[in-house]
Structures are given as structure tokens and as C-alpha cells.
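Ticket #4471: structure output looks truncated?

Reporter: J.K.
Steps to reproduce: submitted the chain below (280 residues) through the standard prediction queue, then opened the result file.
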Amino acid sequence: MEYTPFNGAAKYVLDHELAKIVNISMVLEMPLLLKGEPGTGKTMLAHAIAETLRMPLLVLNVKSNMKLVEALYQYDTLTRLNDSRFGDSNRDVSNIKEYIKMGKIGQAFTAGTRCVLLIDEIDKAETEFQDDMLDVLDQMQFDIMETDETVRAQHRPVIIITSNAKKDLSDPFLGRCNFHHIAFPDPKMMRNIIAVHFPHLDKKLADNAIGTFFDLRSIEGVEKKPATRELLNWIRALASDPDFKDGDRLKKEIPYMGVLFKKSGDYQRSVNSPMKKRFF
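Returned output as attached by the reporter:
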């Protein structure tokens, strides 16, 4: 099968190593496991691949108590029971297939075209879920027990799996994926990201905002450090405020701290930190 290479998207800055592992994963038809702290662009990469390669995107948001069958299909027994009792449905209650609904993996397998399947935050799931899911993705098929039917993938999806590294993944799981760790952008990469999103941003504002942002991230004891998403929103707020849009006043004052810090403890640490006080 021929593949169109992925080289980034209009709003996604891609480094060389990440581009290589994305493209070789598509060639080898292997899931790509992405690790990194929140805000490093793991989830957005799947969106960028789908947008650039013009593929549908399906997102499976993994929950801690999720069972694999939920990601494959659901059998709606309650609706079937109600239909059989009240008889006010157009469905044939004797046909179980009428009450089978595909989950996100099932939708990816039955799609009429190749798609991108994002399995987000796999580290939330139990080890059994992880390993059984990869069995299904290896075989590209699963069984529907209620109908004794096998669902086979019409097209092998591009599979992106993300992890925030909150829990270790099993060795069998790791052995069946390609892997890439997305480091948090350094100031130089962050400037490139900002330039993509704000091509006409005042240079003084950009320089001061990025410098202040990395200073704030270095505050001791912060539980949830502001990520790229928070920086982008913060710059939008600064650029829309006449008092700060030219960047000069930012050297004396840090406004809109609630855009950067979302937890009360982190907010208080940032407001009371010696680094914060030096701006006044």
C-alpha cells in the first residue's frame, strides 16, 4: 500500500524525528505510542495527521473503568427489551443486529475509507485492557458474541496512542508499538509555534510573553504547569488588551494569571513566588 508522507500541518509544528516516526509507523502499519507531559501536542498530532492526509478522525477517550468491548461495540439490551414490550419501534426485535452499535474501534474497522484512530490516554486503562486491545489491533478483527459474527477491518487505520506516563505500560504492549517521547518545546521551538498561530504578533510582546511563560513554569511546587495551550490563550488575552499588546508593560506586571494556572494552589504559588514579585 502506498502512503502519502506526513510533514506537518498548518497549525502544527513538526520536528524532524517526530515526522520520521509517524511516517515509518504508517509504512510498517504499527501503532505509534506517544508519551509526554500534557500540552506537548500528542493529541493534536492525530488531528493534524487526519487534516493533512484528509482522513476521518475517530477518538477513543480511555477511561479508568472502561472494558474493551465498549471500544469495540455495544449491545443495547435495554432498548431491545423496551421495543419488545411496547412495540412502538420500526426495528425488528428478533434481529439482534438492529441493536448492535459500533464503538470507536469498531467504527474504524467498518469505515468505508482509511481513517486515523486516536486512542487517548491509554495509561488510564488496566493492563488487561491494553494488551487485549492490541491483540484486536494486531489481528484487525474482533467477534460480536451476540451474533456470532466476526468484524474485520476494511482498511487498516493509522493508529495513534497517547500516554501521559502516569502509569507504566506492560512490556508486551510496548513491544507491539513504535514509540516517541514528545518533549516540552524549548523556547526556540515555542517561538516557531507562536509564529504559526500569530504570524503578525508584535515581536516585543512575543519575546516577553515566552520569557515570562518559561519563568512561571519554573516555579517550585506547581502541580499543573501551564502548557502550550495556556500560552496561546494567554497571548490572545494580552494581544487583545491595549495595555499589553505592545509587550512593554509585561516587563512590569503579569496579568491574567488565571489563564495560565487552573488550580487554586498553583495560582497562589505563582502569585506569591519571588519570581512573580520581581515584575513589580
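Triage note (M.O.): checked the attachment and the full C-alpha cell line is present. The two ends are 61 Å apart (CA to CA).
Status: closed, working as intended.
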